[in-house]
Amino acid sequence: MRLRLALSAAATSLLIAGLGAATPAHASQFDDLTVNGTGTIAADGTITLSGTYRCLPDDTPGPVFVGSTLVQGGESTGIGGTRAVCDGQVRGWTNTSMGTTAGSRYKRGEATVRAHLMKLNTKSGLPMPKLLAHEEARGELK
Known about the structure:
- There is one protein chain.
- By secondary structure, the chain is an alpha+beta fold.
- It has one domain: Immunoglobulin-like, CATH 2.60.40.10.
- Strands 1, 2, 3, 4, 5, 6, 7 and 8 form an 8-stranded mixed sheet that branches.
- It is 15% helix and 48% strand.
- It has helices spanning 2-19, 100-103, and strands at residues 32-35, 38-41, 47-54, 64-72, 75-83, 91-97, 109-121, 128-141.
- It contains 2 helices and 8 strands; from the N terminus they run H-E-E-E-E-E-E-H-E-E.
């Protein structure tokens, strides 16, 4: 789980640093991503965010992930990463950050969720993130 969280955070950082504006031509036609309007924060601080995604398979090697970030007040934290199945079907994603470290910064109430559907293209040997879709939605932590 830690590797997946670290990989998601690293890929999201790379996207924000320089690739956030790059969207492939087919993204609006086939790849899609939604964020549910309600997330949860458990008594132990575990945060859960969710939504749906759809992506098509392609010939480039590398995994596809749904990464998410929770924003509330002045705080912003990556919340998990889900491995995506790119077969053209609409599928659900759920990302969780366990423990009180991330959860202690957040409270029930209004928040923003940013989600990214990204492929880590490994053709060159180094994983290079390719943004397939993104969504930002205001919602509520319950």
